[in-house]
Amino acid sequence: MPSILNEFINKNDALKIKLLTTLLENKQNTYELRNLTNQFKVSDYLMRESLEALNSDINVLFGDDWMVLKRGIIYQKMTLTRYHVYRLSQYFFDLSPLKLLLDQRLIAGSIPNYTFMQSEFGWSTSYFFIQKNTLSELIDLDSPEAVISAAFVIYDHYDAKPKFDHYILSASQAVSQFLVDKNYINTHGADKKRLLIAIF
């Protein structure tokens, strides 16, 4: 299961989390860019790009810039903690295309086709098949039990919930409308029944 959990955050975001974790462990206020590129064995360009992207992500989540990079030196402007790493991992997981595809598999009971993902989320055909094949290698998508148990572990690991509350609401409205149409309940009791259906 650890390999599955790691796959749900893309490589660039995983690098940012490793980078931030390393900086937290060192507990310094300034860092040399050259030392980080050597430690992570990446290019100077990729390290600069990762730092800028991490700075932007932290700004989006917490409203402040984390660091300034000047002449190869990283100056921290705010103190980060393990909580920040935790929130960032949740944020990256929430943006994961594999999570979106898993959400859709849980909602529909099967993997949606590429035209649905293209119209709803703007995915290209090739991007859809790359994500679908990746998810298929991680989870047996034909087995409801495998999907549900894997989803439980994955969402629990990232302390997240599937984002399909609106689907549950629309399903409960459809069921209550069916009950009204068939005269099983009257319109007056429909709101109460809809609430009960949504709870269940």
What does this structure look like?
With 200 residues, the chain is mainly α. Helix content is 70%, strand content 6%. A hairpin with a 2-residue loop joins strand 2 and strand 3. Helix 2 packs antiparallel against helix 5 and helix 6 packs across helix 8.
Q: How does the SSE layout of this entry go?
A:
Layout: H1 2-7, H2 11-26, E1 30-32, H3 33-40, H4 44-62, E2 67-70, E3 73-76, H5 82-94, H6 97-108, H7 114-121, H8 125-138, H9 144-157, H10 165-181, H11 187-199
Antiparallel strand pairs: 1-3, 2-3
Helix pairs in contact: 2-4, 2-5, 6-8, 10-11
Considering the chains and any ligands shown, give keywords for the structure.
200 residues, mainly alpha, three-stranded antiparallel beta sheet, 3 strands, 11 helices
Q: Over the alpha carbons, how many angstroms does the gyration radius reach?
A: 22 Å
Percent of residues in helices: over 70%
Strand tally:
3
Counting DSSP H or I runs of 4 or more residues, the number of helices is 11
User: pLDDT below 50 for ≥5 consecutive residues: which ranges?
Assistant: none
CA-CA gap between termini:
30 Å
Summarize the structure in short.
This protein is 70% helix and 6% strand.
